[in-house]
Amino acid sequence: MFRLQELVDRLGGVIAGDGAVAVARVAPLDTAKEGDLAFLANRKYLSQVGECAASALIVTPDLREALAGRNLILTADPYLYFARVAQLFNPPPAVRPGVHPLAAVASTLPASVQVGPGASIEEDVVLGEDVVIGPNCHVGRGTRIGRGTRLYANVSVYHDCVIGEDCILHSGVVIGADGFGFAREKSGAWVKIPQAGRVVLGNDVEIGANTTVDRGALDDTVIGDGVKLDNLIQIAHNVRIGEHTIMAGCAGVAGSARIGARCMIGGQAGISGHLSIADDVVVSAWTLVAKSITKPGVYTGNLPLQTHGDWVKNFSHLRHLDALARRVRQLEQHSDGPDDRSQG
Amino acid sequence: MFRLQELVDRLGGVIAGDGAVAVARVAPLDTAKEGDLAFLANRKYLSQVGECAASALIVTPDLREALAGRNLILTADPYLYFARVAQLFNPPPAVRPGVHPLAAVASTLPASVQVGPGASIEEDVVLGEDVVIGPNCHVGRGTRIGRGTRLYANVSVYHDCVIGEDCILHSGVVIGADGFGFAREKSGAWVKIPQAGRVVLGNDVEIGANTTVDRGALDDTVIGDGVKLDNLIQIAHNVRIGEHTIMAGCAGVAGSARIGARCMIGGQAGISGHLSIADDVVVSAWTLVAKSITKPGVYTGNLPLQTHGDWVKNFSHLRHLDALARRVRQLEQHSDGPDDRSQG
Amino acid sequence: MFRLQELVDRLGGVIAGDGAVAVARVAPLDTAKEGDLAFLANRKYLSQVGECAASALIVTPDLREALAGRNLILTADPYLYFARVAQLFNPPPAVRPGVHPLAAVASTLPASVQVGPGASIEEDVVLGEDVVIGPNCHVGRGTRIGRGTRLYANVSVYHDCVIGEDCILHSGVVIGADGFGFAREKSGAWVKIPQAGRVVLGNDVEIGANTTVDRGALDDTVIGDGVKLDNLIQIAHNVRIGEHTIMAGCAGVAGSARIGARCMIGGQAGISGHLSIADDVVVSAWTLVAKSITKPGVYTGNLPLQTHGDWVKNFSHLRHLDALARRVRQLEQHSDGPDDRSQG
């Protein structure tokens, strides 16, 4: 429960209306009830405000007049403000210091650390203050984990990795498994190339459930500060991801790819190996990046959905596009009309 | 070992031939041996029956005459009957009540529950009768799991989730990890939006290995009764899936998508966020759904395979389709022939 | 630390230069320092050798003259030789025999086996010599694991599976979960078909983090000797994969597909069910194989990347390809020029 005035004291913004009003929850416009604090992130939903029962609203300053009579917090970015208020209402779970008797710990840990039942921590592991190692996690020999980082249940971190401060690793994450490197014998058999590099995660990195980040072959795999990876993502060996890049679920990044800072990579996108993506690139969902991208912008390569019948009819031509193009060229050569090919 | 008569007494159907014949196993037509019960789910395999050594066959009633002399169980849906017989021959593993001494349990559990070694169950967890919590599973504070549900080894369920009755969660499943929600600062840094919703699974839900279902941001993520999810599927926050929908491996569903009842979603399909899919929709494998689907039917958007050479030749034109279409328009404008564009 | 002469004594090859030179590490050409052994796998990097500080180089014999004055190991396949040297420098972690007191073991194991904390091994499990079962792994009843195989932390192996010798299973791997098999009732509800088959892995198989291999329905799922699977791959029930086939991350193989020997399957590729792929087939990344492939070769079906604007412009025509083709046909019928359609 916070009064609007308390929120503004902590988070900034300007109050219009009654600063003594108390709110107990944040909620979206369309379901907010009395006692809730709603937010209007996009002006196109302004018409919904009339029916909204929320006790107060987070809005941009230009709406002050239009919403006169409501209790408002005015701020340039209501969605960002909502995020910060939601953090106040939903603080992360408290650290409960101590090592559970069913954990197996072979390193010396700070007293502030929490280690859950079934967790195992090998030799020469260095944990910062307030680190939480969830139930049944494994942390391999020589790994370092920075202050305030939390591993939820069933996370596996291999040996000699580095994880920064204030990171969140969700259940099932695997950090530092061997990269996929083999040399081929003439017989066709594959000879394993030992993966001697590490994984190095920056600070404030969040990694979603069952995502995997492989260790490097000779050098390291490096994930920059503030990177956010969703669930079930594969990051191959020697990949480098710049700070504040965000990647949606089921994306895959092949070996030695370099992704810039502040990129946004869509779900199920694929990034081929040994290429570079510039800073501030947006890759749409379900898109393959098979060549380097050197300029910021939005890049797409996915397919429209059709009814199955239309798909059969239209996509049968994909195998014959070259013939079709040749036929058009032929027609042009025998046409009397002006030639438009130069524009193609 | 069951006699045909016993099977029909339990499962219905009509015997033609000798009801005293005993069968010990179900098997496909082409590999069935003496003592086996085979099934003919599709009339096109009728010619194989002559060589089939099975002691009895499950077939549709119309085949009674054609297969006179064989021992038959006649039923309208042989494949469904086969499934039920297979369940009789292969009952689920028995529950072995008790909490393993290497489990860490902080809630009061019914005596009928089985908790494996290394499992951890936090405070305020409510388990129904005959629940099985496999080795090294984790069940977070406040979660409820209904009667008869089984978690195989290494499943992670976060706090405050609800799992129905008779569900099966395979190894590596993660239920209730944080949804992927962030607001962006001007600097490009991402501010975490706490995920305060839950995951609510209905009854008879089966979830395949390493599949992840994220908790909602403000509302819940809801999976209906009888839904079946294959392995390595990502279900993002606030998704809703209607009852008896089935989804094949590696599919991904983005945030707040609503999928109807009795849908069938193919492997590696992608469903974008904030859209709706009607009941009884079939989405083909490897297809992206980026817009809502309002009518039942089969929808497809995947690519034909070609030899690499043909692919280079044909798909190089994909970047120039607009130019090609323009050239065709140009030709049409200068052609004397009847104009066919109206049909396009 | 090895002298070149020692390396050649163990691994073959011919020395040019000083065999007494000692190297302590392998490194790529562009970052190698004094004391390192670099390798030149591709002649196109020859120009980099001049600046390379490595103490010695692995090269093909034809470069002997061009690199006179450097210390060389001459071998037909420098990359393969590099792999073997890297193995010498980075031997696999030693087995530390013994069962951790926090493991739950219900079978009799050889004294040479290592079982980590939190691991659980059910009844009737047979482990070969020097097997390593990592922390929090689970091995189900009746499973057999061959000599020298290593399971990293948090691997789940269901009952009655067979894993060969010298395999490596990375964290989060799930072997033997139920295949995805259901029969449909008229109501739309799905009836589970018990999965009574096994998973059988050959020798020298490596399986990447969080990859899943489902058990067969009636028959087995079979992975041949020397197969290498990357992370987050789904192998459905009754799939068969021939020896030395390699598959990159996030690929998915649907039920009963048969993949030949020595195939290379790209990342995020999809293989539909009930089809066959011949030996020595290469499938490009992000490609769907929906029909059988009967001949060796490279096959592709992925999409070019475009700026979002170009994509909108070009790909809007994909829904109208049939109309476009029809319009071209129409133009041809009314054209006086020679008809080129026969070449299409």
UniProtKB/TrEMBL annotation, chains A, B, C:
Recorded catalytic activity of this chain's protein: a UDP-3-O-[(3R)-3-hydroxyacyl]-alpha-D-glucosamine + a (3R)-hydroxyacyl-[ACP] = a UDP-2-N,3-O-bis[(3R)-3-hydroxyacyl]-alpha-D-glucosamine + holo-[ACP] + H(+)
EC number assigned by the record: 2.3.1.191
An annotated GO cellular component: membrane
Active-site residue numbers: H237 (proton acceptor)
InterPro entries associated with the record: Hexapep (IPR001451), Hexapep_transf_CS (IPR018357), LpxD (IPR007691), Trimer_LpxA-like_sf (IPR011004), UDP_GlcNAc_AcTrfase_non-rep (IPR020573)
Swiss-Prot/TrEMBL keywords: Acyltransferase, Lipid A biosynthesis, Lipid biosynthesis, Lipid metabolism, Repeat, Transferase
GO MF annotations in UniProt: N-acyltransferase activity; UDP-3-O-[(3R)-3-hydroxyacyl]-glucosamine N-acyltransferase activity
All copies of domain UDP-3-O-[3-hydroxymyristoyl] glucosamine N-acyltransferase non-repeat region, residue ranges: 21-88
Cited Pfam families: Hexapep, LpxD
Metabolic or biological pathway, per its Swiss-Prot or TrEMBL entry: Bacterial outer membrane biogenesis; LPS lipid A biosynthesis
GO biological process: lipid A biosynthetic process
Listed CDD domains: LbH_LpxD
PANTHER family linked: UDP-3-O-ACYLGLUCOSAMINE N-ACYLTRANSFERASE, UDP-3-O-ACYLGLUCOSAMINE N-ACYLTRANSFERASE 1, MITOCHONDRIAL-RELATED
Family: Belongs to the transferase hexapeptide repeat family. LpxD subfamily.
NCBIfam families: lipid_A_lpxD, PRK00892.1
Subunit description: Homotrimer.
Described purpose of this protein according to its UniProt entry: Catalyzes the N-acylation of UDP-3-O-acylglucosamine using 3-hydroxyacyl-ACP as the acyl donor. Is involved in the biosynthesis of lipid A, a phosphorylated glycolipid that anchors the lipopolysaccharide to the outer membrane of the cell.
The protein's name in its UniProt record: UDP-3-O-acylglucosamine N-acyltransferase
Natural source organism: Thauera phenylacetica B4P
Record gene name: lpxD
